[in-house]
């Protein structure tokens, strides 16, 4: 490569780095998601006990459904919070892989969120047959068996898609949800109901709160540079 070509190449790389940095900001949006109303989690014990492998894995522990997980103060877990509108520019998927594990006949985690082009790893930690079946509408459907402990497979998604159902065709109680986003501004509420979206550029955004049972709601939020906005949200039990 000539000296001129080397200089031009280096300039191009530096320009790319600068552009990537320009897409990140210094603002954040965080808060707590709660549920107004009482909902009792369902026990899955009898369903697991119907399978000669899954039952012993349960031991004497109760296995509870993950579709509605509420704390003592109404804190709601497993809510997907993302910037639905207002993001500008294109973002490169991170190199870090995002994993779903089939462990003791339950999916971990229950909510998976990743970027377009990011690697999604499917893992079987059980010494039994699992069949993981994803049902996207915009991306390619996947449906494959993993019959041995330690088996893995990898997938990537080409377009943004929110609310992709994942199920196991062998064990009908097993279920999870996948969210694919074309930018990095998203989060999933934890057991304490809290979430945080950071590195946002200044601007006005539409934030969506998505829950598999209680639907989705949006809020408009404006942030300036270095703002740390608090946006709590409450779903009503149906």
Q: Would you kindly provide a written description of the structure presented here, covering whatever features stand out?
A:
The protein has 238 residues and is mainly β. The protein has a single domain, classed as Cupredoxins -  blue copper proteins (Immunoglobulin-like), CATH 2.60.40.420. It is built from three helices and 17 strands. The strands form four sheets. Strands 5-11-10-7-8 form a five-stranded mixed β-sheet, with no helix packed on it. Strands 1, 13, 16 and 17 form a four-stranded mixed β-sheet that branches. The longest helix has 20 residues, at 3-22. The radius of gyration is 21 Å and the shape is globular.
Task: Lay out the secondary structure.
Layout: H1 3-22, E1 27-36, H2 45-49, H3 54-58, E2 80-85, E3 98-103, E4 106-108, E5 111-115, E6 120-124, E7 130-135, E8 142-146, E9 152-155, E10 161-168, E11 175-181, E12 186-188, E13 194-200, E14 203-211, E15 215-223, E16 228-230, E17 233-236
Parallel strand pairs: 1-16, 1-17, 3-6, 5-11
Antiparallel strand pairs: 1-13, 2-12, 2-14, 3-4, 6-9, 7-8, 7-10, 10-11, 14-15
What's the Cα radius of gyration? 21 Å
- End-to-end C-alpha gap: 66 Å
Specify the CATH class: Mainly Beta
Find the CATH topology.
Immunoglobulin-like
Strand content: 35-45%
| Overall average residue pLDDT | 92
Backbone structural class = mainly beta
Shape: globular
Full CATH superfamily name: Cupredoxins -  blue copper proteins
Largest sheet: 5 strands, mixed
Weakly predicted, low-confidence segments:
4-22
Number of domains as seen in the coordinates:
1
Order of helices and strands: HEHHEEEEEEEEEEEEEEEE
What is the tally of beta strands? Answer: 17
Strand adjacency order, main sheet: 5-11-10-7-8
Helix fraction, binned, reads 10-25%
**What's the CATH architecture name?**
Sandwich
- Number of helical elements: 3
């Amino acid at each position: 490569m000539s000296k001129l070509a080397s200089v031009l190449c280096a300039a191009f790389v530096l320009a790319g780095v600068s552009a990537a940095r320009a897409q990140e900001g210094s603002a954040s949006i965080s808060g707590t998601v709660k549920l107004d109303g009482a909902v009792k989690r369902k026990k899955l014990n009898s369903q697991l006990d119907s399978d000669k492998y899954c039952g012993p894995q349960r031991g004497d522990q109760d296995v509870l459904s993950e579709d509605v997980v509420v704390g003592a103060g109404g804190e709601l877990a497993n809510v997907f919070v993302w910037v639905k509108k207002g993001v500008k520019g294109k973002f490169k998927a991170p190199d870090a892989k995002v994993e779903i594990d089939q462990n003791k006949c339950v999916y971990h985690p229950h909510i998976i969120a990743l970027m377009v082009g990011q690697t999604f790893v499917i893992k079987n930690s059980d010494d039994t047959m699992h069949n993981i079946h994803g049902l996207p509408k915009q991306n390619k459907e996947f449906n494959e068996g993993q019959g041995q402990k330690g088996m893995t497979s990898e997938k990537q998604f080409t377009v943004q898609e929110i609310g992709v159902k994942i199920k196991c065709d062998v064990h009908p109680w097993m279920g999870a949800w996948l969210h694919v986003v074309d930018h990095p501004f998203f989060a999933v509420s934890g057991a304490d109901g809290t979430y945080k979206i950071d590195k946002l550029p200044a601007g006005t955004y539409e934030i969506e709160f998505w829950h598999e049972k209680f639907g989705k709601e949006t809020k408009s939020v404006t942030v300036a540079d270095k703002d740390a906005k608090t946006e709590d949200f409450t779903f009503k039990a149906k």
